[in-house]
Amino acid sequence: MFELLFITAVGQVLLPVALAFRLWRVACRNRLEWLLRALPVSAYLFFIAVAGVWLLAPWGLLYGFALLGSAAAAVSWRRCSRPLPPGDGRNRHGFQAVLDLLLTAFCAGMLAWALSGYTPPAPPAIDLASPLKNGVFYVVNGGYSILINPHMKTLKQESLAAYRAQSYAVDIVKSDRFGRRANGWVPEDLASYYIFGAMVYAPCSGVVIMTEDRLSDLTASEGDRLHPAGNFVLLECAEASVLLAHLMQFSLSVRPGDRVQTGDPVGRVGNSGMSTEPHLHLHAQGRAGSENFLAAEPLPLKVEGRTLVRNDRLVPR
Ligand SMILES: [Zn+2]
Fold first, then answer.
1. From 127's CA, which of 66, 157, 169, 188 has a CA 20 to 30 Å away?
2. What beta strand segments (E) does the chain contain?
3. pTM greater than 0.70 (yes/no)
């Protein structure tokens, strides 16, 4: 949680303000230089709109930054229209231009990398029903680039091969109408998180092949490294196995061998396992033996026909 707090404070609050301030203050001699100053600000704002996790800072801040950036652009536009004496600060302007180009190229490259995760890889994605109902849900992690979905680090890293099945997973929390996911900033009380206790429904028809039900729900800052999935239901459906993880202790209503239909309740959202706060983890995977089921092949998934990526809103039908 500290890592997310640091990234949010620096990347999604301080840096956008600093870039807008620079655009406001920095000197330029003509419209081309103005454009060079403005480009990195807009490229960076687009990048954090796509790749930033808007959990601790509200999404609405982006509108504030867009306003601030536009005001800074307007002020510097007026200044840049007034020609400076020839030869004024040539070296300084050259340096600024190189810095602007480098910043823009870096932000645009990162944005392209993040957006590349909007396209699922082959094979065709498994189409699932929503495992959550009644509300507005926010996708914290999802997609096929590591910049928008940290589960992707299990895809290639040899040391994480035992957890590879979760590479294309999505993590989902519930939002209120202001876009907040909890009553408080980082509350200790699990019940303050709007998704805690929400009913989880089978996203496909199939057979329950494995469950865990006994692990404690941990306070928001802890994490159970020995049982990364926490309490879970592993379903075997027609096209894939599907894991619903981090469920609430003793909340499961199914057992191994049970047949379920799409939409049947299976348990409730909790905060068990390797989880920083209450959320639902959902992924699709190939068939696996019961020994090490998280080592199976990861499969791309869609929910209600949509590829879910970071910062998506899911309003189940
Ligand atoms: Zn997850």
1. 157
2. 126-128, 136-141, 170-175, 199-201, 206-212, 231-237, 241-247, 259-260, 265-268, 280-285, 298-299, 301-303, 313-314
3. yes
